[in-house]
Design a protein that fits this description.
With about 475 residues, this protein is α+β, with helices and mostly antiparallel strands. About 60% of the residues lie in helices and about 5% in strands. A five-stranded mixed β-sheet has the order 1-2-3-5-4, covered by helices on one side. α3 runs antiparallel to α7 and α6 runs antiparallel to α7. The termini are far apart.
Length: about 475
């Protein structure tokens, strides 16, 4: 047999008839190392970048006992694991007492640090666990006992995993878990005769604890975000309610102002016919006044079209009913009594001359107060009082209801025109009045408003509030 045939039978050859060389093996090793280098870089980054270091676990919880709970748990684990760790390493494994005390301290005391810096505590405890496993390879008491991780090491490590899972990111938890498993595999490879496969138990249990802790943390984060969204939605809802009520008030005042502007237009147009001998210049001035009034009416109608709600736009015909005042309160009270709410009404004995804005505001306040009684306290006895102060400068509107007698029936009427107290505040602010609302000692409720008989000449500051029940 030739030498060439012997070489071909000695081992496999490459595609060109030659055996793989050492250079090709090194080239494959370099490719594997190059592919693993980015993964190792990511692993090192995750293990070296803690999330919110220094912030205590549950530090944002309002309840004090929940905020102090991590400190109590960490202290209990540290106090119990320190003496038991020394006892296990010294008495069971035969390690020197001073070395056993130092390693047990490094494996338990960092749990106190885990409350605020769990990832840094993991570095300390994991390093101490690795050193302990290496030292145990040189003692005689390891045979037949768990190695590389003694029982006290597993318990302390699982407590640390719980703190890590509550604080750190998901990729960091995966990096910690993989590092724990790879380290156990390396110890199994280096000293298989001493291994009792405790690394498998620690690897599996740490993964379970990390998974459960991360799930609980993500659930808490989701609940917190949902609560934040609900808070934002509530604020937006309150703002929308306020804007809708202001738009409603603007639409109602349009009718009041439009009436006065129409009167000005008619008077200006008819002045030359009603008054004889008016100079031509005065007739032109009256014509200019009428034109300006008509232009103002057109501008208000365009503004009203912008402010009109979708419900009003869907109606077949525009609102044409005149705006009510305190003169229509008897009809309102009569309708409320038919709805099942006993109401007593007291009005001024003498007629009171009110400006349209004040008259409308007084009526709407009573209407909303009675609607709230029907909604929230059906059947409650209610008193409505409208009086004028002694100096005849202010109008007092008072609505008081007593607590309803059981059994409380279902609401019977929901025809309020505004949005409860929000609408009352806006109407009172419109005429520069004051509003006082709140529960009574016996369980009833009181709404008291004071309105000037004459509306203010200058609009009130929208940022100022005169309500004693400001939200």
């Amino acid at each position: 047999m030739s030498k060439r045939s012997l070489l071909s039978e000695d081992g496999p050859t490459g595609g060109d008839g030659r055996r793989p060389t050492r250079e090709s093996a090194l080239r494959v090793a370099r490719r594997v190392a190059g592919a693993a280098r980015p993964a190792l870089r990511v692993l090192a980054t995750e293990l070296g970048t803690p999330n919110r270091p220094g912030t205590p676990l549950f530090g944002n919880v309002q309840r004090r006992w929940v905020r102090n709970l991590p400190y109590a748990v960490a202290f209990a684990f540290a106090v119990s694991l320190l003496p038991s760790g020394v006892n296990v390493l010294h008495n069971d494994y035969g390690m020197a007492g001073s070395l056993a005390g130092a390693l047990a301290t490094a494996q338990s005391v960092p749990l106190l640090l885990a409350v605020t810096r769990p990832l840094q505590a993991w570095w300390v405890m994991f390093g101490a666990n690795v050193v302990c496993a290496v030292v145990l390879t040189g003692v005689d008491g390891v045979a037949g006992r768990p190695w590389p991780w003694p029982p006290t090491v597993i318990v302390g490590y699982l407590a640390l995993m719980l703190a890590l899972s509550v604080r750190e990111r998901r990729r960091t938890l995966i990096a910690v878990w993989l590092t724990t498993g790879v380290t156990g595999i390396l110890f199994e490879t280096v000293a298989p005769d001493r291994s009792e496969s405790s690394w498998v138990l620690m690897f599996v249990l740490s993964g379970v604890v990390l998974l459960l802790g991360a799930a609980l943390r993500e659930r808490g984060d989701a609940q917190r975000k949902l609560l934040e969204q609900e808070t934002i939605s509530e604020a937006e809802r309150a703002r929308r309610t306020l804007l809708e009520e202001r738009a409603r008030i603007a639409r109602e005042l349009h009718d009041v102002v439009a009436h006065h502007m129409s009167v000005i237009t008619v008077q200006a147009d008819s002045a030359p016919y009603r008054i004889s001998g008016i100079p031509r210049e005065a007739q032109e001035e009256f014509g200019a006044i009428a034109a300006s009034a008509r232009e103002s009416l057109a501008e208000m109608r365009r503004l009203l079209g912008v402010l009109r709600s979708e419900e009003t736009e869907r109606q077949d015909a525009p609102e044409k009913a005149p705006q009510p005042g305190i003169g229509q309160l008897p009809k309102l009270v009569e309708a409320t009594v038919r709805a099942g709410v006993p109401v007593e009404l007291a009005l001024p004995e003498e007629p009171v001359a009110l400006e349209p804005a004040v008259d409308l505001s007084a009526y709407r306040i009573v209407q909303e107060a009675l609607a709230n009684v029907v909604r929230h306290a059906p059947g409650a006895s209610t008193r409505v009082s409208v009086t004028v102060t002694a100096d005849r400068a202010r109008l007092t509107v008072l609505v008081v209801n007593e607590p309803p007698a059981p059994p409380v029936t279902a609401p019977l009427e929901t025809s309020g025109t505004g949005h409860g107290l929000v609408g009352m505040r806006e109407r009172v602010r419109l005429v520069d009045g004051t509003l006082d609302t709140g529960p009574l000692p016996d369980g009833g409720f009181r709404v008291a408003a004071q309105l000037p008989l004459s509306a203010p000449r200058t609009p009130p500051d929208p940022l100022s509030t005169k309500d004693s029940d400001a939200p």
